[in-house]
Amino acid sequence: VDNFSKVTSEAVLAKGGNANTEIFFLCRSGVRSQGAAAALTEVGFENCFNVAGGFEGPPDGSFHRGTIDGWKAKGLPWRQT
Hints:
The protein is an alpha+beta fold. Helices cover 30% and strands 10% of the residues. The protein has a two-stranded parallel ribbon with strand order 1-2. The radius of gyration is 14 Å and the shape is elongated. 15% of the residues are buried. The model has no long low-confidence stretch (mean pLDDT 95).
């Protein structure tokens, strides 16, 4: 088990979660979060989900993110702190 899977598994269990807890992963583009969901699934968590498109999605024709796909481009709620 890699360190990410170990640390994340322990954190979920410490918060009262279990192998059936729904866990949603989100990163900038949806690529790393897909790997994270797969890694936790491999160690026995049954309900891991990747937020497809991530927060900002892929770059557009001008190499800017957040304009063509992802949480932000879809107008879903978020706030910057």
